[in-house]
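[step 3/7] inverse_fold.run input=structure_tokens len=131
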């Protein structure tokens, strides 16, 4: 089992996770070693949420993607889901860090992320129940 598409998606999200985590840490140090919370600092809050949102969505999305790929879902479904996931997560992070919370990049990123895990979820359910 190769899981090339899932591997590329996971690697791409891993490369996003590191800078997001470092941005949180650097802002905490800049504010005087804020250990917990965001100290009512909007920049730190945005950085925490960009990092946290990736952590909240990426793991299950990658599991669903990997299971679909491992069970021979169509390459179209797997590749499209992976592209939606990766680009959606990057767009969401950029929208959260740079623009107001209602910014189009953030909203589009979330829509792409939702689509990326709904399609493999439905495919897996269909595969289990209907072969």
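[step 3/7] decode complete -> sequence:
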């Amino acid at each position: 089992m190769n899981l090339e598409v899932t591997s590329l998606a996971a690697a791409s999200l891993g490369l996003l996770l590191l800078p997001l985590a470092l941005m949180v840490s650097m802002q905490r140090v800049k504010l005087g070693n804020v250990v917990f919370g965001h100290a009512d600092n909007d920049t730190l809050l945005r950085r925490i949420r960009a990092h946290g949102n990736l952590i909240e969505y990426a793991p299950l999305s990658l599991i669903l993607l990997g299971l679909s790929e491992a069970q021979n879902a169509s390459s179209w479904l797997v590749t499209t889901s992976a592209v939606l996931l990766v680009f959606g997560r990057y767009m969401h992070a950029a929208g959260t860090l740079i623009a107001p919370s209602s910014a189009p990049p953030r909203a589009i990123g979330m829509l792409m992320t939702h689509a990326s895990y709904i399609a493999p979820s439905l495919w897996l359910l269909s595969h289990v129940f209907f072969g």
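[step 4/7] annotate
The first helix runs from residue 4 to 30.
Helices lie at 4-30, 42-70, 75-98, 104-130.
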